[in-house]
Design brief:
The protein is of the alpha/beta class. It has helices spanning 19-26, 33-42, 52-64, 69-82, 102-112, 140-148, and strands at residues 13-15, 47-50, 84-85, 117-119, 131-132, 135-138. It has a single domain (13-148), classed as Rossmann fold (3-Layer(aba) Sandwich).
Length: 156
């Protein structure tokens, strides 16, 4: 993979699994963890990284789940305004998650974009569990706890 982009801030930098915005849009609970995480991102509490590949997957999943085109356009517009676009080339994508090759796109975006965290559901298991190329691999709830500033313990 190519080198990481230099970090220009101390803010957390994350690539979110498509399940987070999908869950936030489908939630009827305004206090759900997915809704809270997206709201914290919109308030600038962390930086969300995305690539052309992750946008394509996100748009597909949001539409597939029956989320209205207006809501999809609003989220993608917010991502373009407030997110960090990462240019990921085919040479940057390595097969690291055999069970879900789409997640390789998320990991590549995280690595090239200099992410501090990468949200995958479920998080990686086995050797290297918890990190991939120096990036903390967590699920959405664990990342939300990190954004809140809560102390994470083993297994949380």
């Amino acid at each position: 993979m190519s080198g990481r982009q230099p970090l220009v801030t101390e803010k957390l930098r994350a690539v979110l699994d498509t399940n987070v915005p999908v869950a936030a849009h489908l939630s009827v609970n305004p206090n759900s963890p997915a809704v809270e995480l997206i709201e914290r991102w919109r308030r600038g509490e962390f930086m969300q990284l995305y690539s052309d590949d992750t946008i394509a997957e996100l748009e597909e999943k949001l539409t597939e789940k029956g989320i209205g085109s207006e809501a999809v356009e609003e989220y993608l517009s917010d991502l373009a305004k407030f997110g960090v676009h990462v240019k990921v080339g085919p040479e940057d994508i390595e097969p690291v998650i055999p069970a879900d090759p789409d997640d390789d796109l998320i990991v590549a975006c995280a690595v090239v974009g200099g992410a501090t965290h990468c949200d995958l559901r479920p998080p990686l298991r086995g050797p290297g569990r918890g990190t991939q190329k120096g990036i903390e691999i967590v699920d959405g709830l664990a990342f939300l706890r990190r954004v809140r500033g809560e102390e994470l313990t083993e297994g949380s």
